[in-house]
DNA sequence: CCGACAATACCGCATTTGTATGATTTTCAG
DNA sequence: CTGAAAATCATACAAATGCGGTATTGTCGG
């Protein structure tokens, strides 16, 4: 017989934690090794006793699940982390992936789907809900229009935006370019209109091509 | 009766194209509307007659499948593109996603898997092979070695900085985090002290690791 | 238990910034 | 040459921001 997949669960709500544990432990080929109520507990224990897969709730009291993964992943590189959440259309997906999670599923997934996901994760996959997967795939897409958005800017406007990107104030930019602060502000205003933004940070983000 | 999913196939090898067409057209709920031997042909025709899903081979004579998607996607935003390839561990995955593809499967996938993938793609998912999905998820992972100056920030401060980085004002952040604007400003002030900066843009630059 | 620290919140002030309106000069392509 | 676009500058106002001080509450490690 093949070795079972060892699982740990981090979930603050008693009822959910229990039922997850029972589900996993009851299924063939899985064993629920550890359960935790808080990220802090998990952090402490999982470093010493690594498991194959960790089911991690995101919304935990104290340290949240994402932060927990961020700290745990470097210390247990072989452990795979699956985020469990109730929200599916959140920015947190990307934060979770950045932190080192490899799977992201919804709590309302049916039990057999959950077990399938654990298996898939353990076998080298990255199970995600449909909408999440689509979101992730879409995040790579670069529309050809977006990259050229800066083309509408004049040379002078780019010079100014470049300095704004370094954190300079309009007065500083004015001094650097030997023009009046008023002029710089006018340019900034024009830049905002062209880029359709309303603040420095937004403008700089577009300029440096981040979202 | 529900409308069938309309499919187009772009594949230069006669035998494969034929068998794919027969598979799709023969299955319930699918209809193979068009087939093409080259990217150029597809480009010409698909703009006028959009379909729901396009199965796109990557390795085509002349223009490759990825370039074809790049040009087709902006003109048929509602069409979903599924790349079909024989290699699974290629850098081309990311290029395909950037170009606008939403699915990436292997040619050696069993027929029923292919049909499943088409359905999933059409219903808002992003079907990928396990290894591909893992590769994509992993590409987001940032190891904590890169950033260390941010360690002095508390969790709350990071949350706030994260939103500042998206261009939100202190009022917006306050609303998002359900606290008073005054509190947010205080946090921002503390962040500035810790990071040794004096403006939002500078703080965001440090946060995102720009120089 | 206590001290350090995080998070919360308020008041206030000077400056910067975002927005608007208007005008003059330079530059450059048709 | 000529008109459009770019660059320049000014004034004005409301809002946002940066900076300072102060205070309460809660948590956590020692």
Automatic annotation (TrEMBL), chains A, B:
Domain Response regulatory: 6-122
GO molecular function, one term: DNA binding
Keyword Phosphoprotein: yes
Protein name in the entry: DNA-binding response regulator
Keyword DNA-binding listed: yes
Segments forming domain HTH luxR-type: 146-211
CDD domains attached to this UniProt entry: LuxR_C_like, REC_NarL-like
One Pfam family, short name: Response_reg
Superkingdom of the source species: Bacteria
This protein's UniProt keywords: DNA-binding, Phosphoprotein
Residues modified as 4-aspartylphosphate: 57
Organism, scientific name: Larkinella rosea
PANTHER family, A to Z: TWO-COMPONENT RESPONSE REGULATOR (PTHR43214)
GO biological process, one term: phosphorelay signal transduction system
Matching SUPFAM superfamilies: C-terminal effector domain of the bipartite response regulators, CheY-like
Signal peptide (UniProt feature, chain positions): none
């Amino acid at each position: 017989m093949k070795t079972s997949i060892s699982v740990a669960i981090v979930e603050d709500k008693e009822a959910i934690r229990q039922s997850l544990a029972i589900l996993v432990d009851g299924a063939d080929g899985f064993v629920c090794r550890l359960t935790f109520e808080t990220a802090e507990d998990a952090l402490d224990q999982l470093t010493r006793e690594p498991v194959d897969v960790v089911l991690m709730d995101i919304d935990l009291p104290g340290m949240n699940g994402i932060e927990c993964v961020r700290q745990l992943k470097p210390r247990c590189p072989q452990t795979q982390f699956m985020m469990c959440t109730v929200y599916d259309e959140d920015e947190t997906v990307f934060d979770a992936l950045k932190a080192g999670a490899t799977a992201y599923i919804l709590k309302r997934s049916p039990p057999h789907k959950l077990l399938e996901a654990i298996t898939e994760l353990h076998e080298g996959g990255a199970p995600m809900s449909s909408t999440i997967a689509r979101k992730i795939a879409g995040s790579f897409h670069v529309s050809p229009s977006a990259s050229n958005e800066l083309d509408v800017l004049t040379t002078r406007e780019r010079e100014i935006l470049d300095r704004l990107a370094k954190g300079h104030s309009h007065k500083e930019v004015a001094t650097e370019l030997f023009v009046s602060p008023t002029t710089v502000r006018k340019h900034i205003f024009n830049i905002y209109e062209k880029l359709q933004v309303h603040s420095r940070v937004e403008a700089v983000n577009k300029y440096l091509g981040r979202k």
